[in-house]
Amino acid sequence: MAAAATGDPVSRRPGTARTVLSADDITRIVSRMAHQILEKTTGGAGVVLLGIPTRGVPLAHRLVRRVHAVEGVDLPVGSLDPTMYRDDLRLRGVRPLEVTEIPEGGVDGKVVILVDDVLFSGRTVRAALDALAAYGRPRAVQLAVLVDRGHRELPIRADYVGKNMPTSRRELVAVRLREVDDVDGVLILPPAAAPTSADEQTGRDHA
Amino acid sequence: MNRHLLSTEDLGRDDALLILDTAERMARVAEASVRKLPTLRGRTVVNLFFEDSTRTRTSFEVAAKRLSADVINFSARGSSVSKGESLKDTAQTLEAMGADAVVCRHGASGAPHRLASWVRGSVVNAGDGTHEHPTQALLDAFTMRRRLGRIEGLRVTIVGDVLHSRVARSNVWLLATLGASVTVVAPPTLLPLGVSSWPVEVSYNLDAVLPKSDVVMMLRVQRERMSAAFFPTEREYSRRYGLDVDRAANLPEHALVMHPGPMVRGMEIASQVADSARSTVVEQVANGVSVRMAVLYLLLGGSGEVS
């Protein structure tokens, strides 16, 4: 019952990872997504960004910085941990909890944009929607993801997609961000030697 | 972490910090407008209390309910226990009812350990005899960390009836694990024989220790556990070991005054001190719910296997 093992899948299988997005690619994508958010929300009126830990949080902060650079507005940004709302808690060892930080002003009547790194089964987003409801009633909820790798198991789609990335269910998509991993990049890792279920394969809670 | 939480003596540093960090997250839940989580839906927590305790039982009950667990309160009075049922029979009954966790308070030291060997679910010790009360120590540590920012290096003074206090024992072990230095202050008659083997300093002079304390924890004099005269009069005890206004003035500016409750005002602690800004008595109650939520989540929130 110690902290969940979030082993580094890249170092575990050296030499077999395929880089699909470079650091520069990520910078351009974040910039484009920031513009799309401004366009779709007419200048970011009433928008609050909430990153889903771990890597959704630095992504949300990057989007907010880009939005500031483009339009000069400061959007409230925070984090939302969906762990305690997951439907698969009993399927593995206990998961460590992450930080939930709702920005001042709350979410009531706001347009909340949930930000995550990878959209996969959609189960994390489902849990995040439930978690969000505990903090108030937003006017609308949107979803921004850096990578959409397909294989949805729930009727959920993203409003802002950095990159659509067709993958095999058994492959593993690893997003690396400077703030967490010291480098930027998105890698696709080949199927693990012993096939496991889609959920376990991601190693992290990318659903 | 182990399947059970029976004592802080065998609780490792990593597990203790994991509980405190998890409790920090749980405390944030109390700030949400909906303070209920679906996390332990379908799990059953049994409060098995052989001793009276309104505050601890209620705290566990609130914690379990905030996590959506079903709670069954099973108290010794008015149950078959008063008809002579043994602990083992009670355990088997709870087992048959499908208890995922049993929160146990018992007058006999070691009773929760025995219980743990009889049930499939997790056992949480909510106080056994004069042995341990681990969640109290965890909530005390949590309170210190929230108020003072750290535990490592803190000078903690525990004052009073150490002999009968499971709170003192649990705190001594946990604080040693987390790197605080502990001094116990008590009349010689209220110190246990084995205190020399504890990781603590011993003093009989409260006034000398107070100016060097970051935290002073006052213990209740447990009249109900005393079968002999441990000190001449209450007045004398209070004069030498009670925290009155003049004594509290000798504490450093930042120092905290803690009490696990229930307090005997005017005996071990003066009312003005108990209600002062440095007192954490009320916070400790709120923090107790967060810490117990953390413990229940860590014991019941996963598949039960180490991930």
Descriptive labels:
A: alpha/beta, Rossmann fold, 3-stranded antiparallel sheet, 6 helices, disordered C terminus, B: 307 residues, alpha/beta, 2 domains, 5-stranded parallel sheet, 11 helices, 9 strands, globular
Question: Care to describe what's here?
Answer:
The complex is a heterodimer of chains A (207) and B (307). Chain A has 207 residues and is an alpha/beta fold. Chain A is built from six helices and eight strands. Chain A has helices at residues 9-12, 23-40, 56-71, 123-133, 178-181, 198-201, and strands at residues 18-21, 47-51, 77-79, 111-119, 140-148, 160-164, 172-176, 185-189. In chain A, the strands form two sheets. Chain A has a five-stranded parallel β-sheet, with helices on both faces. Chain A is globular. Chain B is an alpha/beta fold. Helices cover 37% and strands 15% of the residues of chain B. Chain B has helices at residues 13-29, 54-66, 87-96, 111-116, 134-148, 166-177, 206-209, 234-241, 245-248, 271-274, 281-300, and strands spanning 44-49, 70-75, 101-106, 122-128, 155-159, 181-185, 200-203, 215-218, 256-258. In chain B, strand 3, helix 4 and strand 4 form a beta-alpha-beta unit. The chains are: A alpha/beta (207), B alpha/beta (307). Chain A binds chain B through residues 1-5, 81, 84-85, 89-100, 102, 130, 133-136, and chain B through 1-3, 14-15, 18, 21-22, 25-26, 28-29, 32-39, 67, 297-299, 301-307.
